[in-house]
Amino acid sequence: MNRRTFLAVSIAASMPTFAAEKDTRCFEMRVYYAAPGKLDELHKRFRDHTTKLFIKHGMTNLGYWTPAENAESKLVYVLAYPSREARDVSWKAFIADPDWKAAYKASEVNGKLVAKVESTFMQATDYSPEIKTSSAAPRVFELRTYTTTPGNLPKINARFRDHTIALFGKHGMTNLFYWNLQAGQPGTDNTLVYLLAHKDAAAMAASFKAFRADPIWIAAKEASEKEAGGSLTVPDGVKSVLMTATDYSETK
Fold first, then answer.
1. Residues 77 and 27: beta-carbon distance below 8 Å
2. What domains sit in the chain, N to C, each tagged with a CATH number?
3. Which of 41, 130, 131, 251 has the highest local Cβ count within 10 Å?
């Protein structure tokens, strides 16, 4: 068995299950920076009002998380919509909803809850496992963002499709969601965003240690970088944020 055949057979043995068809929905990752001292009140508004009103107006709550180290008082969440156009219709109806207006006004009697909002529109990769809510305890979540070197987003997608995600599974990581950015945003041509789950932080460290030492990974990385003429990511181009799910998250 030659090296290429060995790689293919080894990877196939641990491939995760994918959706039957590519998910064509629009996904939006929203990051809220709570005003000083207001994160708990922001959680309460989402728990008691916002998530239910999102559903009322046709949005799908995928998950809500806070970073394990949260000096900036962030709330990270992801919504899904049938399309970008449907997203705009849903948000317009949500903002105009009298129930939302009342909840918003009541929650901000003692000051604004949110200091800043960041929004990113994403599309599922063709190799992402089925993007759906799930629950398993205990576990923590890891949000990873890759910035590729020029022209190498297709190559890093190919490496994940053909090798990386199966090896993650082999070493005890749970592959949840994989996205690229939708067109018309900074980073569309060089960004991969994905979410993993681990039993805990120690399990995450052990899994990545085993993954990086795996001969199959070493060979796949070497081959992909030889073809590309260097690293597929820019210096410091891999960002990792460990997160915990909120008590009202659909994915836990």
1. no
2. 3-18+126-245 (3.30.70.100), 26-123 (3.30.70.100)
3. 251
